[in-house]
Structures are given as C-alpha cells and as structure tokens.
Request: fold
Amino acid sequence: MMSVPSQRIFYDSKGSQFILGKKIGSGGEGDVFDIPSSHHTLVAKIYHKPLDTTKQEKLRLMVQDCNEDLKTISAWPVDLLFIGHTGTVCGFLMQKIADCEPIHKVYGPSHRKQSFPNADWRFLVRTAKNLSAVFNVIHKYEYVVGDVNEGNILVTRKACVRFIDCDSFQVTKKDTTYYCEVGVAQFTPPEIQSSDNFRMKRTQNHDNFGLAVLIFHLLFMGRHPFSGVYQGPQDMTLEKAIAQYRFAFGKNAHLKSIVPPPDSVDLSIVPAELRGLFEQAFTETGSEPDGRPSANDWWNALDFLEKRIRCCTNESVHTYYSGLSSCPWCRLEDASGILLFLSSDTISKIDLNAEWNKVIAIQPPGLIPAISPKMYRFPPTPLPDNLRKALAFSKIRKIAAIALVVVSLLLVLDTIDRDYWMLVVAIVLAGALFFYPGKETAERKQRKLRFENARYTWGLWHKKWQNDAGDEAFIAQLKHLTTVKKQYETIEREYKRALATLQHSAQERQLKKYLERCFIDKEPFTFVTTQKKAAMRSFGIETALDITRQKLMGIPGLSKPESDELIAWRKRLEQKFKMDPSKETDDSDIQELVHTFQPRIRSVERDLQAGRENLHQIQQTIINNRIRFQPAVEKSAKSLAQAQVDIRVFSW
Reply:
C-alpha cells in the first residue's frame, strides 16, 4: 500500500485543484507523487517540512524562468503547490520523467548488463555527449547545478539525459544567490574538497569538474579518474587524492605516485583532443577561473569521437575509436575475465560442435618414444695388449691368492698342532697378491668415472625426456577441455529449459499485460464513484491487475457492493481475454533470459577457446621437444650402455 501525506488536495498558482496519486519516489527533503488527473504527465514534489521564505522565493524564481529548453532536459518546477488557495508553498509540479535509470546504471558494467543490456560503448559515448548538452542548457540560463552526482541524473533507453532534484540548483537573481547546500565528495572539485559545508557560491567551473568525472565514468567503464593504486607510504582516500590533484590516468601520474588500477584501460582509447580535456579538467590548471573544459567543449570532442566509432571484427557488441589498431574491450575482457557488454540475440557466440571438432582435430602426440640404455648392445672397448696382459695376470694373482688361503686353511685344520701362524702368513701373502695394483688400475678408475658420469647424465636426460616429451600435459589439458564442454552443455540445457518454461507461461503473461491496460478510470461502474476511484489510486490501485480482495479490504470506506463490482469486472475481463498464439514469447522476455545466461556461458566460451589454443600449443611443444631432444637422449643412453659394458671388463 502506497503511503500519502495526510493532506491529499493541493492547489497551483492559478487555483486549480490537484489530488495526489501513489508515491513514486522519496528523498531527504520530500516525496514525489503521481498526479492522475494530468494523465500521468505531471508529478508533484511535496516537502516534509514547511519551507522558509528563502526556499519559497527560490522556487518562485525557478517557476518564472521555466521554458521549453529546461522542461525538455529536466524535471524543472513548472508551478508551485499550496495548501489551500492562499497557503504557503509546500511543493511544486514538474514534468514526469519515466522509463529512466540513474546514470551509474549506465556506466557500471554490472548494473549496465541488467538495466541497459543492449548498450555498447557507442551508447556510452552518446550518453556522455547528451550529458554535456544538458549541462550546456543549464549553464546557458546561468544556473549552477552545485550538487553534481550520479543520483540526480537519469538516462533513457535512447541515451537521452534528464536532470532531477532541480530545486537544489544554485540560483542567482539580482545579486541574490540562493545556494545549493549539499554535495557529494567524489564529484566535488579539489579547490572546495576540504570545505566544512557547501553553503558557498559555486561557479560553472565547479560544475565542470563533476561533469568531467561523469564523462570519465561513462567512457572508462565506471572508473573514477582519481581512484588508482597509490605508491606512497600512507593511505590515500579518494577525497584526499582529488584534493591533491592525483589524476591516476594522467600523463604525469607517476610524479604523483599513483597509477591506474588493475584491469582498466588508459586514456589512449580516446582521441588526443579528449585526452587533453581530461588533463585540463583534473590537473591544477583546472582550478583557475574558467580553467576546466566547458560543457560545449566536451560536446564538440565527443561528437568528433562518436562519428569515428567502429565495430570490432571479433565481437559484434564491441565498438571503439577507429584511431586504434585493435579493440581495447577484447583485451580487457580477456585480461579481467569480466564480460563488459552483452549481445541481445543469443547466449553464445560460438558453435559448440564446430569448436569441439577443432579440439578433436588436434592429434595427440601419442606415447613417448621408448629410449633406454638396455636397447643398445655394444662390445666393450678393447684394452691395449699390455693392459690386457696385465689384467689377465691380475686375475691369475687373485686366483693364486685365493688358492693360497684355502690350502693354508686346510693344512692348519689337518694338523694336530694347528699352527695358526702359518694361516696368518698365508693370508698376508694372499692379500698382497690380491690387492697389489697392476698396470690396469688407472684404466679401471677412468672407466668407472666415465660410467658414473654417464649414469648421472642419463638420469637428467631421462627425467627431461619424460617431462618435456611425454603426453601427460596433453592428456590433462584435453581432460580439462572435456570438463569445460560439459559446463557449456549444462548451461545451454538450463537456458533451453528456462525458454520452454517461458513459452509455457505465455498465456499468464499476456493476461497480465492485458489487465495492466484496463484502467479503472475509463470504466463506467454502477457503484464505484469518481471519488472512490481517486481514493483507490491513492492506494496504488489503478488497473484491473491491481484488483484483489486483499487490496480492496485495505481501502477505508469501500463498501461490499463496490468491492464486488470491481472483482466482477476483473473476472469479466479475464473471461473475455484471448491469447494471441503468434506472441507466445515476448522479445523483451527472451532478451531478459539471454542476458541472464550470457555472462555465465561467455566465461566458459573463453575458457574453451583459450584451452583449445593451449592444447594445440602443448601438442606442438611436445612434438618439437621430441625432435629437439631425441638425439641427445639417445646419445646419453648409448653412452651409458657403452660405459656399462666397458666397466664390466674389470668385473671379477
């Protein structure tokens, strides 16, 4: 149930009566109500508290100055509202601005995808251009906005811009200034950033700072020009950064110890003239009188940009300045993983089957070729004659040493006295014979060293061969892509189920829209009078769709016959309704579904496409590594095989 003030009837300056409808907005100073008798073209702002004479005089001056220019670009006060014919000013009438959203829902990527799903960068440029035009009109009539912020500027689906809360503007007439006493820090220029309050005379140059911030928001995906990564020793708040002229995207930002934040684009995405205007607006020169670009300056530069916007060849919803060599949004989306813009026709921009065929067309490298020292059979490297003879003699000596020990042991065990000294002498002699170094000793040491080196080198090459030439990385990446494909198919199935549900509920949605077009005002009831209709409007009941038993019970003074007549009227309309089969699904409903599922599936698309490229790169790397390393690995295996047979020559 919509709330209304206790006083519902007001009068304009001509004495005409106005009855408030439902409340459609609320703010710190007052509430905004619909005016049904104006055919919903006017709304009324009613203040919470009585206005002082200064505020009343300010509103009178604004009403006197009202013209078609101001009415076109804003909710400008068109007439005052009084309690009674001679009462004090308690509010004013203004044009109703419908089908708009606050400007931050245009430049914030997340909000934009919900509120302006079809908007591309061209739309943002057009919005910035129209914003400049709106400021230009305000300044042409010598008004100052004062409280420039994202909450008092609305945008339509066609990028038209409208001001609301105009009663807070600064008005100057005949040397008298009616101040704007509020403000938002992030849109407040450096020279008045540290002020204790906003009760001061502001200039259009102050407005131009807020205008420049809003334009920067629009062109740079909601980024604030002074919000960057501060590289100094202390914390840097946004307000402090503004006060110290730390323009994070400026050409001299490094001198201010600040750089742009991650996942953002820089000034290079706009023409040189616009870059210069941003530098002028956000550096020290801007605080000088008329130092910042005017609204007209911005309009001219943005008009130049708008005429030089091109479409991306890779992504149809990406548009950008034609002076660039490539699309900045493709790079930013790839780097950040965030979908900046939505298309309106389909949830996916790829053909999954075609994309998967590209994946399976990448041939697996196959099992790694087997390479081992055991694969090679080599004869031992021959010894020179002198070393061969020395080795043979060494073997004879060792056999003799063993025989001496065995014979000595048998003799000792066979004698009664058992003279063990004979055994000791035999062992000493046998040791001398066995361990006496022959001429072949040096060769044995060299071959043993070659064997150890070959075994160590083979261990390194074998590990590298397995890691760099094996197919494990390819198999793991293919498994990952299979998982990604399943994720894509799951989202696609969910979308199709939601679309089927949407089609099944078509009759219910068509009936709802039909009842929304049946207004109570236009129906000649028997019991329900015009006064009761006005009372019902005050409680938010305007169409047949609004009529329910529960809602009607909440209206004071509504009799049972009146209530029954209203319920019966709705039932007759429901029985009269016929579904249009050609409109089973509404385009807007389908687009809403598309924009719900599109952000989910686009990240999977990117993963699939990037993963396919990675799979191909892995395949090529494995193949190249096999070609590159195989000779060295085989050489190492052969070296170890040769070293093994060479050392066995000396085995006993």
About this structure: DSSP finds 20 helices and 16 strands in the chain. The mean pLDDT is 88. The two ends are 105 Å apart (CA to CA). The first strand starts at residue 9 and ends at 11.
